Amino acid sequence: MLTVNDDEFWEVVSPVEFGELPALQDAVTVVGYPIGGDTISVTSGVVSGIEISSYVHRSAELLGLQIDAAINSGNSGGPAFNDKGNCVGIAFQSLKHEDAENIGYVIPTPVIQHFIQDYEKNEAYTGNLIWVF
């Protein structure tokens, strides 16, 4: 978990609210800072799949959202918002294939909340995400 040592920082920021797991065809907006860019990138699309996905960085299979909003190189780690402005997940990978365009994957809020609860309970990440789904 990250923090900022200057307490004044927290006086001017508002926390992001987590939203519920979106449904198929719900709108999503992904915000990130892609490689080679000078400003924040915003892409939009819809949820096109909700399924157990392979998390390449974790070598695990967990619940994931497939979206058709572009997740450009460097955008990984950026939030995905619903149409109410609530965070419904974190962009984490995209499918790079000659026959596929704009297929991205998002770690949904139930997985994120489980991670946060694990961290708060144990004061460290224990890696216990297997039982989530």
From TrEMBL:
It holds the Pfam family Trypsin_2. It comes from the Eukaryota. This is Protease Do-like 9.
